[in-house]
Amino acid sequence: MGITKMTATILRQDVIANGIYSMVLSAEEIAACAKAGQFVNLYSRDGSRLLPRPISLCDIDPKAGTIRLVYRIAGKGTEEFSTYHAGDTIDVMGPLGNGFAKKEGSAVLMGGGIGIPPMLELAKELHSMGNVDVKVVLGYRDEVFLDTEFAEYSTVYYASEDGKHGVHGNVMDAIREYGITGDTIYACGPMPMLKAMKEYAVTNDIEAQLSFEERMACGIGACLACVCQSADVDEHSHVKNKRVCKDGPVFDAREVELS
After folding, report:
1. Domains assigned to the chain
2. pLDDT in tens, 77-111
3. How far apart are CA 21 and CA 17, in angstroms?
4. What are 157-180's pLDDT values in tens digits?
């Protein structure tokens, strides 16, 4: 089953932190083939906002035919979505992009800010493999969210900018403070965090998969509006670029150059 564009029914929407919402959609076709690290495009009802908003998948339940999206209000589009209620409908397309390549052994999941939600589905999928030791490091500015849900699938560590939760600092500070190690690192968050994770992984010879947060236009690789610099020449653009929406949003850290 490939990419589907459909009108989905909202089953539930809750505020889980200041400006952060959790939306559950009935989307059987998307849930049937989606995996951790992929995303969907949500479409506004306002004709003046033509471009869809890409939102990562926080939870996928193929049996129930549902997907869960956790997003932060960042502009007019996401502000509009936050006004929707159970029973409302929304146009959605997905699953889009490439997800995480799950590995056996010990895993360290790093989530920073709104990069935390996609790590929940990954923690669940790794846990279900039965042979993966999963550790999760969550980095917050101040208010925490989703942390208790991670505890079902992993050992959870915290870092916060205000020092009220876990280590006072960022996820790299938590890595050092707690001596966290693993065979594979999976990370999603702002670019400075991903750059630090790549440097750490290269220095310590650890495989790392990085999920980029990027502004997108089409979401399907046609417009080249969300390219990042790659180590090798891309077959599509014939330059050292990769399309975040199509080739990513998850990349092997060795594939990409982070400035």
Report:
1. 4-96 (2.40.30.10), 105-255 (3.40.50.80)
2. 999 999 999 999 999 999 999 999 999 999 999 99
3. 7
4. 999 999 899 999 999 999 999 999
Helical ranges in the chain per DSSP H:
28-31, 76-81, 117-129, 147-150, 171-178, 191-203
Q: Reduced to 3 states, what is the DSSP secondary structure of residue 41? A: strand
Cβ atoms of residues 154 and 95 within 8 Å: no
Q: Which two tokens stand for residue 113?
A: 């800010």
Q: Contact 126/183 with Cβ under 8 angstroms?
A: no
User: Both tokens of residue 66?
Assistant: 């549902």
Q: Global pTM?
A: 0.91
Between β-strands 167-168 and 66-72, what pairing exists: parallel, antiparallel or unpaired? unpaired
Is the pLDDT reported for residue 219 higher than 90? no
Q: Spell out the long-range contacts of 119-122 with Cβ–Cβ below 8 A and sequence spacing 24 or more.
A: 119/150, 119/186, 119/188, 120/58, 120/59, 120/146, 120/149, 120/150, 121/35, 121/36, 121/37, 121/57, 121/58, 121/59, 121/60, 122/36, 122/37, 122/186
Cis peptide before 190 (omega within 30 of 0): no
Q: Give the three-class secondary structure for 16.
A: strand
